Amino acid sequence: MECHVYYEGDDDPDKCTARRLERFDEAVLHRSMRQVPYGVVLNPHAEQALSPADAAEGLETLVALDCSWESAEAAAFRMNGVHRALPFLVAANPVNYGRPFRLTTVEALAAACCIFDRYDRAEELLEPFRWGETFLTLNEEPLRRYSECSDSSEVVAVQDDYLAGE
């Protein structure tokens, strides 16, 4: 599964997970939106949740936007592709540990891989990070449940059940 990142460069380079992914040859960084290939764009503002159906449609390219959460507005996600939002997950990174929906770029890409039932790829992406395994552990149940869904509406239903404690 190919991972591509549109890199805005507006956060701390020492804490940037996208730059570390690039150093480990796990993702390709693009500094121009025109260079970003067509794929599944992980967009928190998307109207439809990511589901295994997206991978079943042959969309094997994941695209993330690496920017500060302060600038992660809808307009920042103007990339071509199929835009999907990740369902409820909790961050494991040191800056946003335990906060829902405040994932780093690597956490978002790894979560998408898990939802596509590519846990091996998620582990590869998270391996360079001390807290990488923690992300998978914290989100083990919802990621497993999301990966068993057939479409976006099922993912939303599972998310609602999970948040209700069922």
Your description of this structure?
- The protein has 166 residues and is α/β, with parallel strands linked by helices.
- It has one domain.
- The protein contains 7 helices and 5 strands.
- The protein has helices at 17-23, 52-56, 105-115, 119-126, 132-138, 140-147, 152-163; strands spanning 2-7, 28-30, 40-42, 61-66, 82-84.
- It has a 5-stranded parallel sheet with strand order 2-1-4-3-5, with helices on one face.
- Strand 3, helix 2 and strand 4 form a beta-alpha-beta unit.
- Helix 3 (105-115) packs antiparallel against helix 4 (119-126) and helix 6 runs antiparallel to helix 7.
- The longest helix has 12 residues, at 152-163.
- It is globular and about 40 Å long.
- The N and C termini lie far apart (32 Å).
- The mean pLDDT is 90.
- It is found in: Cytoplasm.
- Belongs to the TDD superfamily. TSR3 family.
- This is 16S rRNA aminocarboxypropyltransferase.
- It is an enzyme of class 2 (transferase).
- It catalyses: an N(1)-methylpseudouridine in rRNA + S-adenosyl-L-methionine = N(1)-methyl-N(3)-[(3S)-3-amino-3-carboxypropyl]pseudouridine in rRNA + S-methyl-5'-thioadenosine + H(+).
